């Protein structure tokens, strides 16, 4: 599958408070490679990519000696380096860590944005992990450096409304997914994007047949039962293999495997209060579960959002009727299986 970027355009207007910040922190016109990094991020103006005089190609090649002279020249500005990074060619994307380091050496704040795309260096690093055009290893190196410097994984491009995890999922870079979620899992793992019907990174991976990214997201706690604006879970946005032409046989196999993976990951959902009667005190819990098609250890979904493992079913000392105990994946309250000093599961 070929992924293409739409033609660049200026991002929507930023908020007044951010505009005031940008006025307080002007972008230096002639940065030095050893310049001290600013304390506040700014938006850099758009600039054309520099090329050597009488150069035979229309794109920048960091492997070419003449281009290297420009790349390492202290007079080459941050906006010009951002313009180089925007070039979607292997020669540039495979050197994302080298170019990114040159941008940082010129005093760029780790959360500075490119004025044309409203993307940060972390966004560009995640794009640069794309197979074919990019190099996942180089992208991971730059991303780790940026995160160590305090890059904000929650920042979104105002043009696409995508954060770094969304880009890593879209371009199917599981190594980047792991790096991004290592220190920020609760904040971003299920964050949604309006450009994908308010779907999560798992929806994005599913709709683009990104099997590696989808597996990695599930391993790191992505919710396979989360619904997008259309009411679809990730498994439901996987392209239908039956709609693919014969020359897409490999993609059809991926689609089948991905759909199965996502369907099996969805916790069993059962609204127990609607089928449990309050006068079943003498019915053993295991029989009650069996009648409902459940058993201890099953994965379940509560309130359409919270996932967990079924640990207990039976009568309790605090109320009549049959009760169930669920160990939540993300603890709330005690979450230790006890009520009123009585422990019902460990």
Automatic annotation (TrEMBL):
<dbReference type="GO" id="GO:0051010">
    <property type="term" value="F:microtubule plus-end binding"/>
</dbReference>
<dbReference type="GO" id="GO:0035371">
    <property type="term" value="C:microtubule plus-end"/>
</dbReference>
<feature type="compositionally biased region" description="Acidic residues">
    <location>
        <begin position="16"/>
        <end position="27"/>
    </location>
</feature>
<dbReference type="GO" id="GO:0031122">
    <property type="term" value="P:cytoplasmic microtubule organization"/>
</dbReference>
<dbReference type="GO" id="GO:0005938">
    <property type="term" value="C:cell cortex"/>
</dbReference>
<dbReference type="InterPro" id="IPR036859">
    <property type="entry name" value="CAP-Gly_dom_sf"/>
</dbReference>
<protein>
    <submittedName>
        <fullName>CAP-Gly domain-containing linker protein 3</fullName>
    </submittedName>
</protein>
<dbReference type="Pfam" id="PF12796">
    <property type="entry name" value="Ank_2"/>
</dbReference>
<dbReference type="Pfam" id="PF01302">
    <property type="entry name" value="CAP_GLY"/>
</dbReference>
<keyword id="KW-0040">ANK repeat</keyword>
<feature type="region of interest" description="Disordered">
    <location>
        <begin position="1"/>
        <end position="49"/>
    </location>
</feature>
<dbReference type="GO" id="GO:0005634">
    <property type="term" value="C:nucleus"/>
</dbReference>
<dbReference type="InterPro" id="IPR000938">
    <property type="entry name" value="CAP-Gly_domain"/>
</dbReference>
<feature type="repeat" description="ANK">
    <location>
        <begin position="197"/>
        <end position="229"/>
    </location>
</feature>
<dbReference type="InterPro" id="IPR036770">
    <property type="entry name" value="Ankyrin_rpt-contain_sf"/>
</dbReference>
<feature type="domain" description="CAP-Gly">
    <location>
        <begin position="314"/>
        <end position="346"/>
    </location>
</feature>
<dbReference type="InterPro" id="IPR002110">
    <property type="entry name" value="Ankyrin_rpt"/>
</dbReference>
